[in-house]
Amino acid sequence: MKNINKLFQFILLAFFIVGCNDAIDIEQPGRLGAAQAFKTVADLQLGLFGAYDQFDTSTEIQFNAVFTDEISIGFDNGGQGISDGSYGFILNPTSDASIALWNNYYDALNAVNRVIAASELVTPEAGEQADFNNILGQAYGLRAFAHFQLLSYLSPDYTDDSALATILVNFVPTIDQQLPRNTNGEIYASITSDLNSAESLLSIDANPTLISKDFATALRARMAAYRGNYSDASTYASTLLAKYPLADTFQYEAMYEDTDNTEVIFKLARTVGDNYDGQGNTGSGYAGGWAGANFAFITSELDGSPYYEMGRTLFNAIDPADIRYTVSVDATSVIDPDYATNNDPAADILVISKYPGKDGVPLMNDLKIFRVSEMLLIKAEALTDANDLTGAATLIKQLRDARFGAAQVLPVYANQTEAFGDILDERRVEFAFEGHRYKDLKRLGTRADRAVDRDAIDCAVNGACSLAVTDYRFTMPVPLVELDANANVQQNTGY
């Protein structure tokens, strides 16, 4: 085992950048080349482990929670969210969130691209072809995901193929290359090509912790929904709805303890000491790592030093009979029904428990990327877009029936705005603290007549109570360090 770990570290040293500010500054003189580092299929497998390790959505979880309306400033807060301005809707090219997101995904692309490039230097031995194909297929899937995540934050309009997105890096650039941003259409085309390659190579139909054919279908569904191509979105979502059931209340709670994968299509595994998680509990401050550390210093309990608490508007939106209340609100919370008029902050402490920890390690849990509930809600969006409001309502009821463990009232929508509003409200509860809220408001807020919505008690600290979804800050800036290093990169409007 020690020898494996040493080899793994060796591979990492050869292929990953450390502290690189420029997304294109990834080929360094004197670095061990692919021909020396990758000679066998086993070496490729280690490189793939390292690529998985680069993918970490905890930064996004924190940004989505703090910048929107998922959290409030906790009683043990030491300036988190306030000192950097993110809780006050301050977002600029030097913001920690924009720098972290940019660096995280270009580091990931660097790792993946090097595995793909190295695969051309490796000839599988007898009996290794299937493993070789699966390694390469997973790498293509990871590359597609990285590009989509970057586009989702940097593109001002997902539905406009001519809008600028991010820099397409589907190869290993040289240090002197200064690449411009590509359009949505170019990025979407690259993602589609990578998913096609992944599906042609993979023999993994379904696996909750590995890139699989179902992962590719889920990403296609999400991408189509973001583009407003609801016919394709509905088709892809329906394929997965036929394969994955919604979790019942017991399975749902176990899912967030990482002991049940009934409705999980794909998640990033987090286990101390394995090759998929070398990050540790460093989630706060956009450092990456265990997601629970985004909200508390010690544990997800009242005495665990929570520095962010659940936002009141989100809390008020969750029925205590809903299993999502049990999963999201820790039982040690102090709940004051008179919070609005009571000036004692200690009387109302809503502790976030979405990441309670596992294996005796507080705050460490797998990062859920695709669940079948998202596919159901994507299909509801598609039905609403087609003005089938009853069909959309039936799906919303289906989800609520599962989460309450009992039949719920069928919603009735007078128009598309009401239906989209209910879908967005449902997504707010279903995907709380999972890194969706910012992008959901951006793409659905106008059609749903919704905006960032903080309770008056939560925004009393700075007066930042709401933010319209048309605000330029619903598109992230290109980091200043990238602009300084690359003259060909164009900044987003407003920054």
Written description of the protein model:
- By secondary structure, the protein is mainly α.
- It has a single domain (2-276, 366-473), classed as Serine Threonine Protein Phosphatase 5, Tetratricopeptide repeat (Alpha Horseshoe), CATH 1.25.40.
- The protein is 44% helix and 4% strand.
- The chain has helices spanning 2-15, 34-37, 41-54, 58-67, 96-119, 129-154, 184-201, 213-227, 230-241, 249-255, 312-317, 323-328, 372-385, 389-404, 416-430, 437-448, 480-485; strands at 71-73, 264-268, 308-310, 367-371, 452-453, 466-467.
- Strands 1-3 form a two-stranded antiparallel ribbon.
- The chain is globular.
Main structural class: mainly alpha
Strand count, sense and barrel status of the largest sheet are: 2 strands, antiparallel
Poorly predicted ranges: 1-30
Order of secondary-structure elements: HHHHEHHHHHHEEHHEHHHHEEH
Question: Portion of residues in helices?
Answer: 40-55%
How many β-strands, per DSSP? 6
CATH topology: Serine Threonine Protein Phosphatase 5, Tetratricopeptide repeat
Number of helices in the DSSP assignment: 17
